[in-house]
Amino acid sequence: MAAVRICLLALILAVAGFAAQAKDSLRHVDNAALAELIGRGVPVVDIRTPPEWGQTGIVKGAHRIMAFDERGKLAPDFIERLAKVAGPDDEVVLICRTGNRTRLLGTALSEQLGYSKVYNVEKGIVRWIGEGRPVEK
Questions:
Q1: Residue 102 and residue 23: Cα distance in Å, rounded?
Q2: What is the pLDDT of residues 101-119, one digit of tens each?
Q3: Are 125 and 96 in contact (CB under 8 A)?
Q4: Alpha-carbon distances, residue 87 vs 36, 83, 104, 130 (angstroms)
Q5: Helix axes 2-25 and 100-113, enclosed angle (nearest 10)
Q6: pTM of the predicted model, to two decimals?
Q7: Bridging pattern class, strands 26-29 and 63-64
């Protein structure tokens, strides 16, 4: 019985440790931190759809890599295209309209693909534009 408890405790600790590591791998940033990351040359990936990019523009220099189609389905080439910009050990910033899609995607990248330095822009391009920060069409 004690052996079962020890094994169960070890399993719980391992799962908790993995969850904490994945949680630490995704960092939520505001626009000031985004500007700093851009200044350091960290790539920004705008995961929105082409119509969204056309509607608002993008953060200057951002990579346009659509993650989800209009129905919410993961784009089949997203992971491959992302890997050309940033690998699991590289820093990468994700931005969408309000930060919801990038929060979910960043969590998946951290937990399932081992990305260890993912930044999610809180409130997305909406807040970036709302603060009068520059975009390019």
A1: 14
A2: 999 999 999 999 999 999 9
A3: yes
A4: 20, 5, 18, 31
A5: 130
A6: 0.82
A7: unpaired
The domain made up of 2-136 has a fold known as: Oxidized Rhodanese; domain 1 (3.40.250)
**pLDDT tens-digit map of 30-79:** 999 999 999 999 999 999 999 999 999 999 999 999 999 888 899 999 99
Q: Scan for tokens 């260890």, then name that residue.
A: 116
Q: How far apart are CA 128 and CA 57, in angstroms?
A: 11
Instruction: Concatenate the DSSP letters of all residues of 46-99 into one string.
Output: E-S-HHHHHHH-EETT-EE---B-TTSPBPTTHHHHHHHH--TTSEEEEE-SSS
Retrieve residue 59's tokens: 């953060």
Contact by Cβ (8 Å): 103, 120:
yes
How far apart, in whole angstroms, are the C-alpha atoms of residue 11 and residue 135? 47
What does the domain layout of the chain look like in residue ranges?
Answer: 2-136
Reading phi first (left if > 0) and then psi (alpha if -120 to 50, else beta), residue 48 is in beta
Distance CA 25, CA 67 (A): 19
